[in-house]
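Weekly modeling sync, notes
Attendees: S.R. (lead), two postdocs, one rotation student

Agenda item 3: backlog of single-chain predictions. S.R. asked that every request posted to the team notebook include the full sequence so nobody has to chase files. The rotation student volunteered to paste the first one in as an example of the format we agreed on. Action items at the bottom.

Example entry:
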Amino acid sequence: MNSSTRKNALLNTLLICILLFVSPLTGTPQRTTPRTWIATWTTSPEPADGNPNRPLLKIDNQTVRERVRVSAGGSQIRLRLSNEYGSSPLTIGPVTVASTIDFASIKPGSTRAVTFAGSNSITIPAGAPALSDPINFLVTTGTELTISIYFPRRVATPTLHSLALKRAVISQSGDHTRDEKLEGFTTKSSILVSAVLVPAQPLQKVIVAFGDSITDGDGSTVDADANWLGHMVRRLAKTPAASKIAVVNQGIAGNRLLRDAPLEFSSFGNSGVARFDRDALGISGVTHILLLEGINDIGFPGAKVGEKYLADPADARTVEDLIDGYDQLIARARARGVKVIGATITPCEGVNFPGYQTESKEATRQAINKWIRTSGMFDGVIDFDAVLRDPDHPSRLLAKFASGDHLHPNDVGYKAMSDAIDLTLFK
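Predicted structure, as returned to the notebook:
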C-alpha cells in the first residue's frame, strides 16, 4: 500500500469514527442522558423570627434529627439543603438518612451517609442551597425518612421552617448522626432541609401546593401528617396513579400573596408573588400548582397579636389587588407550561385575632371567591369554601371541621378538603 492509499484509509477510518460519535440529526456529540430528578417532599425555606429562646437559634456543635414523609417513591434519593436566609457561609459535618421508628429513633442497620461531591461535609455559601449526591435508599409512597445533621459550629442565622408539625430532636454536644436513638430537646420546627428528590419516571406529575398556614397544616395533629396534603397522599396511594404523582407542600404560616412579612414576624416569609418562582415554578418536575392563598391579605390589616398589628390598618387589600396578584402567578406559570388550580378562600368568623375578620373583610372574601369560581382564569377550581363552611352561617367554618382558633381546620376538616379534590384535574 503506497503512502497515498494509507493516508486515504486513515482519513476514511477517522471519518467513520466521527460519524459514529456525532448525532446524525443534530451534529452534536452523543452522550448518556443524565437522570432527571423530581421533588417527592418539600418545605419552604423561611428566615428565623428572632426569638432567642428557640432551640434552633442556638445550635452549636450539635446534631439535629428531623423527619420527612415522601409522596412518590424511587430507588435513590437526594437532599436539598438551604442556607438561603443565612448571613454567612454554613458548614455542616456528617449527614445521614435512615428509616424511622419514631421521632428520636431509627431502624438499626438502615443508616446511609449523605455526601456532597463525595465529601461527608460541605460549606454552603450565604443565600445558597446545596444538593447532595444520589443516595441508594429505596423509598415508596408514604415512606418516612429520618435525616440527622451535625452542625460543628455555631449557626448564626439558620434557614428554618417554623411550622414543621413534626417533632425534631436537638442533641447535646457532638456528632450523633448515627445514634440509633437521639436524646435531647424537641422542637416542632425544622432546619436546613428543603427538599427530597427521587428519579423521575416517564409522564410523572408533581403537584405543588402553594399557600399559607392552611396549606402548611396549622391546626392539624403534630406527627400525624393530618393536613390536607397528607390526606391527599394517602388517598393517592390507593389509586393506580400512586407512583406517578408526587404532592409537595410549599405553604408558609402567616404568608401573604402581596406583602412580605414585617420584621417582627419575619418567619411569615416573602410574599407569594415574590417567592413563587423559587417555591413553586422552581420545584423539580412541577406540572401543576394548587393555589390557596389570600386569606391573610384580607385579614391581617388592622388585626392584632397582643399589642402588635399583623399589618398596618391602612394596608387593606382590595378585590382588584388580589385578582391582579393571581393573574400574575397564572401568567408566570403558563409561560413555563405549568397548570394552576385555584382554590377558594375558607371562612374564619370567630377567629381569635381581634380585627382579623369583619363584615367588610367577609365581603372581600366572598367577592374574591366568586372570581375564582367564575373567571375561567384557572385550569381548574377546588371549592374549599363550599366544603368547610357552615351552610347555616357561611362566614364560619362548620363546627366539626374547625380547630380551636376558628381559622384553621382540624384533622377532620383537612380530610374533607382532601376528599373534595377531583383527582382528574391532574391528568
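Discussion: group reviewed the output briefly. The longest strand covers residues 74-82.
Action items: rotation student to repeat for the remaining queue; S.R. to check formatting next week.
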